Amino acid sequence: MRELKYYVACTVDRFIARSDGSFDFFLMEGEQVADLHTTFPETIPAHFRDKLGISADNQCFDVVLMGRRTYEVGLKEGFTNPYPQMKQYLFSRTLTESPDQNVELVRENALALVRELKTQTGKDIWLCGGGDLATMLFSEIDEMILKVHPILLGSGIPLFSGVVKQTSLELTDSKIYNNGFMLLHYRVKH
What we know:
Elements: E1 4-11, E2 15-17, H1 31-39, H2 46-52, E3 61-67, H3 68-75, E4 87-91, E5 103-106, H4 110-119, E6 124-129, H5 131-136, E7 141-149, E8 157-158, E9 168-176, E10 182-189
Parallel strand pairs: 1-6, 1-7, 3-4, 3-6, 4-5
Antiparallel strand pairs: 2-8, 7-10, 9-10
């Protein structure tokens, strides 16, 4: 069975973006970049994959789930099909149609869709963001993979924007880089 994995960048105080959705404070260079490109090449948006010369096959994921605000980051730059190497789902209660034929709009029954996707064969499912969608799908998250950047933001969009129940996590893997960046893998013990 597939698993739902919340693979996301965050600050030490667990914000995934500023309140306006911007995230220009994240480290875009350092030894972790090559590791992430090798381990998770499919998570690099298509327009960056081309620029960076990344052509590797999907290693971990073949489905991506995005909330509207996460999707709109690329849409504002004119990118309507950010991850053509994966099946893309856009979750929104306000949009009436998808901006791209390759991105399937989901307006309701998000949990039912994720449960169905998990029963299918294939690689795992990437929960790309954001905090609202992560809160809504929390009960289905199997693993959290946090790319923790060495910065305190103080406020912004949190890892989970709503209330989630107290849940134990098991640290299954970690790597700390010389620049303070940490890659942490947690199993969610529901």
